[in-house]
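Dear colleague,

Thank you for sharing your sequence with our group. We've completed the structure prediction you requested, and as agreed, I am returning the results in plain text so they can be pasted directly into your records. Please verify that the sequence below matches your submission; if there's any discrepancy, let me know and we will rerun it promptly.
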Amino acid sequence: MPTDNIKFALEFEKPVIELEKKINEMKEYASSTGVDLGEDIKRLEKKAEQLRKEIYSNLNRWQHVQLARHPQRPYTKDYIERVCSYFEEFHGDRLFADDKAIVAGIGMIDDYSCMIVGHQKGRDTKGNLYRNFGMPNPEGYRKARRLMQLASRYKKPIISFVDTPGAYPGIGAEERGQAEAIARNLFEMSRYPVPIIIIIIGEGASGGALGIGVGDRVLMLQNSWYSVISPEGCAAILWRDSTNAPQAAEAMKVTAEDLLELKVIDKIVEEPEGGAHRDPDKAAEIVKAELLRTLAELSEIPADKLLEMRLEKYSKMGYWNESK
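Please find the predicted structure tokens below.
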């Protein structure tokens, strides 16, 4: 498992990261000096493997949220670069501006020509300011809708990568119709007569995620989270203290396993052991295989049947009791 590129470790990851670094140091020392440390290295590698399994197979919901936010986790453009043999990005909503928090364009995934849209975060302070921390303005959702309409017109499948802490809540965004832009996308995405695949690759918060999140199949990476509000936001409302976010995450059931059980998503996409940030190439390989499988499956369904199944899918979410 690659460790040299790990520049940031979460608190619960530190024991295994430190042990892996020690193993690497021993390998370098053995290589440079010729000293035989083979048995010691094997013993430590076995210990590291056991430790990884122990840590990553027993994560609580808050730890899943932390992994979803890991600063080295692959973002939309990282997947596009690894999954697509060709990608041409489009810009602007033809109304106001080009929102850098939404990446969108035509891409080739093996033999499939697809319209790809997704949230995009930055890697550092400068990048996050440029990408608005992955929080789209109305023009971002309108850009996505413009290109999804284009995909519908030319019968191209749509793939949406979801990874946002929420739609941008600024005054300007509200003035330009943030709620209307998201609502319009929900309405339009329910009616496009082409396959739509949603894949949640990190954070899936509220309407910010739903604005490009209505589709025929909703896939979710193992260490992502998806909910009506962030754990911090929920904690601030219920307890007036955002430090209760771990407690809120447990109550909200935000993980992939929770949402599969609730039938909000259709499938959990496994990640490399320890999370996608530890091996982005392997993570992209897994994502690509799942996208190709789903594209092949949906491409066999007639457009009218696809729309019927999509509407039925969302009408079945949740349950209620009627009383007189």
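Summary note from our side: DSSP finds 14 helices and eight strands in the chain.

Kind regards,
the structure core
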